[in-house]
Amino acid sequence: MDRFTLLRSGPFRFGFVATLGVLLALLLGAAVVSLSTALTLIFVAFFVCLGLYPTVRRLEGRGFSRGGAVATVVGCFLVVVGLLLWLVLPIVVAQLGQLFTYLPSGYDEISEQQWFIDLDAGLGGALTPGLEWARTTASDPNTWLAVGGGALKVGTGIINQVFGVIFVLALTIYFVAGLEAMKSSFYALVPASRRAGVIDLAETIMESVGKYLGGMVILAAINAVFTFLLLTVAGVSFAPVLAALAFPNTLIPLIGSVINLVIITTVSLFAGPETALFVGLAMLVYVQIESYVLTPRIVGKAISIPASLVLIGAMVGATLLGLLGALIACPVSASVLLIVKKVVMPRQEAA
User: What are phi and psi of 235, to 5 degrees?
Assistant: First the structure.
């Protein structure tokens, strides 16, 4: 009886409950880590759905039935993805193979260019060892296997990526088709006294995020096409690979286009300093046009947050989820700010 009395007393009961809480938190944390890949794919599919859904509503406004609008959007989405896989992917894969073959001779070409010889002489030959190290490292297959974690891990990663893409495509279709039913079920769980406010907040967030994501995809596609045309005209090798790389880079808010500018200008040095200067200036002009002309017209004011928060969100997102985290940093930050503005601040004012 004394033992049970001790367990029912304040300090012992608190310690027991606290220990159970810590164990439960550890179990939940381990479960989240184990499901991180699946949760990330679900998150990606939901964001793709939000990007497609404004088009569904636009078609409904033009007289389409809901089923017809969903079928049209899903069909066009699958056609675009299929064309990318059929036309773009083989070219990019072939170009990547050529890139790995070209890198050793490409470094040799740089060492023979006059600008490199003059700069190396001015630095007392300091550039030659670094270039030789880069050439040796790039030509060693073990380097790329080490980067990928080994041959087995590379193969497993490719297979996982293929299944991940298939899963995201299938889940996106289900999300687009059943989003209204999902929203209705979620709203029904909210108490009636708060339901109107929750519906208004949720619809505002989803509409803003959808418009933003759709606009950013269009901007990224325009940037990728311009990158391909610019590099092709300038005679820079591997334009398809760099254009494919420009698409996800441009999706990163604020700094994505600048990252793409630095990458393609650096690669253009393989063709000579004049080519790199031309590519850099042309891309710089395009970045200005994109920032001050295209972005306001295409994205508009779907999401309006301070630039400092965008950069902080992109850094935190990239640390947590890599490239995906950087891509979704802006809409997530805007959603949090909207919740603070419409929920937290009014409560503070009323307190």
Answer: 80, 25
Nearest to 257 by CA among 233, 231, 280, 277: 280
Measured distance CA(71)–CA(66) in Å, rounded: 9
DSSP string, 120-179: HHHTTS-HHHHHHHHHHHHH-HHHHHHHHTSHHHHHHHHHHHHHHHHHHHHHHHHHHHHH
Q: What is the pLDDT of residue 100?
A: 65
pLDDT interval class at 281 (50, 70, 90): very high
Q: How far is CA 255 from CA 54, 169, 250, 311, 332, in A?
A: 26, 28, 8, 8, 17
Q: What is the pLDDT of residue 138?
A: 63
Query: For residue range 311-342, what is the model confidence (pLDDT) as tens digits?
Result: 777 777 777 776 677 777 777 777 787 788 77
DSSP 340: I
Mean pLDDT, range 210-230, rounded to an integer:
87
Angle at CA of residue 301, ends 71 and 59, nearest 5°: 20
CA dist 207 and 300 (Å) reads 13
Report which residue type is found at 234. A
145's CB contacts (< 8 A; 6+ apart) are: 151, 154
Nearest to 49 by CA among 182, 200, 176, 231: 176
User: Reduced to 3 states, what is the DSSP secondary structure of residue 18?
Assistant: helix
User: Among 128-137, 176-185, 268-277, 298-307, which is the least confidently predicted range?
Assistant: 298-307
Mutual orientation of helices 151-188 and 141-148 as an angle, nearest 10°? Answer: 30
* Cβ atoms 215, 50 nearer than 8 A: no
